[in-house]
């Protein structure tokens, strides 16, 4: 390797990469690095996660499943729970979750632990790259300053950069090797080393002049999406109030070739990014007594969306002369988005909880989530729902290839996503 990581590590091995955290970001990252010719060791503290990886029981695209199965047969790719494995690596990439707690405040436990471990095991000449989305200044606070306290000068003794993850689970069009990377190093040399490391995993690398600029770029990306999703939900309800079909209006607006990007109404926002990332920015701004009213309102609307949808289910039942207590409600798809089995922050879970609390019998049908244990109540996916068994069907998430066709005597169908083919009854919300 030239102008990048040393061709040989101090351990006499070819340049290795340790990926810390093998979740929805870390595992695809490790596979991309391995496919780019790197020797990779993946580190995760969860033995159950490692067992799932070793048996290829993980939520990846089919092509990535095959890539993982092949990688596990190669001695150049291995996984471990031992954080000391980072000592073997010329580069360490930190890919741990950054969720929010019940109060929508940043939960920094995993991030702080992973950074502390990386600092403790850092060796001279090593490159540390943080990818986890967080507040502006995280890289300096959790990596640079502790390294300096250890006597390791970033940019001279060790190299530090931030390169925000850009993973879109379940979407083959946005795989890592098709998505540009943003990189901001502590020094120019740090940026170039990180760019050299990640260049083989992305179509292009965009360099910024600091870790803080890279950190803010990720917060900007996802805050932009959050605000527009909240707006789409609001405008969709405005359309219905005016007797208009929201999707027809969106399609018309999207014919404009400039200044417009279509966002679609839905049951709420789930997953690892949109419901969480903007709160890292808001939390930091509040500490500085700086207001961001537009973002605040958007995130409040997003948080309240599942409750509004549950209320619309109750209204639809009332319109049929049915009480919510005792009603039978089926939710089609409970994953947070099509094509994944991920339930993190899925609006379906809150909707289900609220309806159950109001006395409804709630079932679900999701081929990717065969079993759900929620608050001690175990439910199993209904494989072939019979319309006669349900008073209302809530269309929440339709996975690729799913066909939903209801007969004329179907129950009320409440569609809170893009209207699928075959659903002829009901209303969008």
Automatic annotation (TrEMBL):
<dbReference type="InterPro" id="IPR014026">
    <property type="entry name" value="UDP-Glc/GDP-Man_DH_dimer"/>
</dbReference>
<dbReference type="InterPro" id="IPR036220">
    <property type="entry name" value="UDP-Glc/GDP-Man_DH_C_sf"/>
</dbReference>
<comment type="similarity">
    <text>Belongs to the UDP-glucose/GDP-mannose dehydrogenase family.</text>
</comment>
<dbReference type="InterPro" id="IPR017476">
    <property type="entry name" value="UDP-Glc/GDP-Man"/>
</dbReference>
<protein>
    <submittedName>
        <fullName>Nucleotide sugar dehydrogenase</fullName>
    </submittedName>
</protein>
<dbReference type="InterPro" id="IPR028359">
    <property type="entry name" value="UDP_ManNAc/GlcNAc_DH"/>
</dbReference>
<keyword id="KW-0560">Oxidoreductase</keyword>
<keyword id="KW-0520">NAD</keyword>
<feature type="domain" description="UDP-glucose/GDP-mannose dehydrogenase C-terminal">
    <location>
        <begin position="330"/>
        <end position="422"/>
    </location>
</feature>
<dbReference type="Pfam" id="PF00984">
    <property type="entry name" value="UDPG_MGDP_dh"/>
</dbReference>
<dbReference type="InterPro" id="IPR008927">
    <property type="entry name" value="6-PGluconate_DH-like_C_sf"/>
</dbReference>
<dbReference type="Pfam" id="PF03720">
    <property type="entry name" value="UDPG_MGDP_dh_C"/>
</dbReference>
<dbReference type="InterPro" id="IPR036291">
    <property type="entry name" value="NAD(P)-bd_dom_sf"/>
</dbReference>
<dbReference type="InterPro" id="IPR001732">
    <property type="entry name" value="UDP-Glc/GDP-Man_DH_N"/>
</dbReference>
<dbReference type="InterPro" id="IPR014027">
    <property type="entry name" value="UDP-Glc/GDP-Man_DH_C"/>
</dbReference>
<dbReference type="Pfam" id="PF03721">
    <property type="entry name" value="UDPG_MGDP_dh_N"/>
</dbReference>
């Amino acid at each position: 390797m030239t102008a990048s990581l040393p061709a040989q590590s101090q351990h006499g091995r070819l340049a290795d990469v340790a990926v810390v955290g093998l979740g929805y970001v870390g595992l695809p990252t490790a596979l991309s690095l391995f496919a780019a010719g790197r020797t990779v060791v993946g580190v995760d503290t969860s033995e159950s996660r490692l067992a799932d990886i070793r048996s290829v029981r993980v939520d990846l695209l089919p092509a990535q499943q095959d890539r993982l199965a092949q990688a596990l047969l190669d001695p150049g790719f291995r996984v471990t729970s031992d954080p000391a494995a980072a000592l073997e690596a010329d580069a360490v990439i930190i890919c741990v979750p950054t969720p929010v707690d019940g109060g929508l405040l940043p939960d920094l436990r995993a991030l702080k632990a992973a950074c502390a471990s990386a600092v403790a095991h850092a060796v001279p000449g090593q490159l540390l790259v943080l990818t986890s989305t967080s507040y502006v200044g995280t890289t300096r606070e959790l990596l640079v300053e502790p390294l300096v306290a250890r006597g390791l000068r970033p940019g001279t003794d060790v190299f530090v950069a931030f390169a925000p993850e850009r993973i879109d689970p379940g979407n083959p069009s946005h795989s890592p090797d098709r998505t540009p990377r943003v990189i901001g190093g502590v020094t120019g040399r740090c940026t170039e080393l990180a760019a050299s490391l990640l260049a083989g995993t992305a179509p292009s690398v965009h360099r910024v002049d600091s870790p803080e600029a890279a950190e803010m770029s990720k917060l900007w990306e996802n805050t932009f999406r959050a605000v527009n999703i909240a707006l789409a939900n609001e405008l969709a309800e405005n359309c219905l109030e005016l007797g208009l079909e929201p999707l027809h209006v969106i399609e018309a607006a999207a014919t404009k070739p400039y200044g417009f990007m279509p966002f679609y109404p839905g049951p709420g926002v789930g997953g690892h990014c949109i419901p969480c990332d903007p709160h890292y920015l808001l939390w930091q701004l509040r500490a500085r007594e700086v207001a961001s009213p537009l973002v605040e309102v958007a995130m409040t609307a997003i948080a309240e969306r599942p409750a509004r949808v549950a209320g619309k289910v109750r209204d639809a039942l009332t319109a049929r002369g049915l009480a919510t207590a005792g009603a039978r409600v089926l939710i089609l798809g409970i994953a947070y988005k099509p094509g994944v089995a991920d339930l993190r922050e899925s609006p379906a879970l809150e909707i289900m909880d609220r309806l159950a609390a109001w006395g409804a019998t709630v079932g679900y049908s999701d081929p990717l989530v065969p079993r759900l244990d929620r608050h001690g109540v175990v439910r199993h996916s209904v494989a072939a729902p019979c319309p006669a068994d349900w008073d209302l069907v809530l269309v929440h998430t339709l996975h690729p290839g799913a066909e939903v066709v209801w007969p004329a005597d179907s129950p009320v169908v409440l569609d809170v996503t893009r209207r699928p083919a075959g659903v002829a009854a009901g209303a969008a919300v």
